[in-house]
Amino acid sequence: MQTIFQTIKEIAIEIDHAIKTEDLGYSDSSNSSGEDQLKLDVKSDFLIEKAFASVDIVKNLVSEEKEGVLELHENGKYTVCYDPLDGSSLADVNLSVGSIFGIYEGELKGENLVASAYVVYGPRIELMIATKEGKPLHYRAQEGLFNFIGEVTLNEKGKLNAPGGTQKNWCDYHKTFVDDLFAEGYRLRYSGGMVPDLHQILLKGGGIFSYPGTSDVPNGKLRQLFEVIPFAFMYEQAGGQAVNNKGVRLMELVPSHPHDTSPCFFGSNYEIEKLKEAYGVTA
Ligand code: AHM
Ligand code: MG
Fold first, then answer.
1. pLDDT tens for residues 61-119?
2. Gap between the Cα atoms of 211 and 231, Å rounded
3. If one looks up domain 160-278 in CATH, what number appears?
4. For residue 238, how far is the Cα from the chain centroid?
5. Ligand nearest to the CA of 36
6. pLDDT (tens digit, 9 = 90+) per residue, 8-21?
7. Ligand 1 centroid vs 223 CA: distance in angstroms?
8. How much is the average pLDDT of 273-279?
9. Does the pLDDT at position 188 exceed 70?
10. CB–CB of 98/87 below 8 Å?
11. Residue of 77, 131, 138, 195 with fewest CB within 10 Å of its CB?
12. Which whole-number Å values give the CA distances from 282 to 16, 151, 273, 279, in the listed order?
């Protein structure tokens, strides 16, 4: 597993360099979710595939930017599911973007995720790694090397509210839930990049990030294998919770297709319990 983390560190430095130096425009292709791909999406995907091609323990790759499963090493043990450049449409306005990695052993479902990691490309490059051994580990790059900053723990309750999805298509009880948080004094923090938004909540001690199902997109936008499950694991290891609109742990998701999405809510305990009450799904 350490080989995979080391590879992610090397990938992070390369993608960061591409973001800082390459063309920010669109390519002439679209991905499996029907979204136009930026040249940087394609380049980041290429860099990740190239890097894992020499890591024998990686059996398969599943990418947000590829249709199916790519077999790398027949005798490998793990499948790495990744979003090469999440929030890439924010690169041209110079906001932070990220890469997300879920490492699975066996069938691709939440309970088979064994580790996750994400990289934030901001003013600095940061990396968070979570395994079953304990709290997420936070690193920051300096001159190409990743220095360990510390373990990350969520407080029971935070102050930040990151409400995603098109507001006019929210259901009434979701709108009431979001309004109630603001009435309690929560502050809005939503950049449009789930990596920096969820990273901020983790490092500032807590709050909630939501991307609900809406009337136009009932299963939400965020993809289970590359986005939802890796961050659900990260939040649970930090002492928080991550659930869907039924109050079910996102770690219990079983996608039927690599690009399946799910409504998702990640936060510290107070906010997620409040969410379950608002959605009428308290056990
Ligand atoms: P992407 O993988 O195509 O970049 O989309 C995922 C991103 C998330 O980072 C972010 O939370 C969400 O899309 C923002 O969507 P919206 O513009 O609907 O708020
Ligand atoms: Mg994404």
1. 999 999 899 999 999 999 999 999 999 999 999 999 999 999 999 999 999 999 999 99
2. 13
3. 3.40.190.80
4. 15
5. 1
6. 999 999 999 999 99
7. 10
8. 98
9. yes
10. yes
11. 77
12. 42, 30, 8, 8
Q: Which two tokens stand for residue 184?
A: 């309690």
What is the Cα–Cα distance from 80 to 60, expressed in whole angstroms? Answer: 6
Contacts of 248 (CB under 8 A, 6+ apart): none
Ligand 1 binding site (Cβ under 6 Å of any ligand atom): 35, 64, 83, 86-88, 164, 192-194, 221
Q: How far is the CA of 209 from the centre of ligand 1 (A)?
A: 12
What would the two tokens of residue 107 be? 């069938």
- Ligand 1 centroid to Cα of residue 138, in Å, is 23
Domain 2-151, CATH: 3.30.540.10
- In the chain, the amino acid numbered 215 is S
Domain spans of the chain? Answer: 2-151, 160-278
Kindly report the pTM of this predicted structure.
0.96
Q: Which residue in this structure is represented by tokens 């906010």? A: 271
For 147-168, what is each residue's pLDDT tens digit? 999 999 999 999 999 999 999 9
CA of 87 to the centre of ligand 1 (A): 6
pLDDT beyond 80 at 33:
no
Q: Which atom of ligand 1 is nearest to the CA of 97?
A: 9
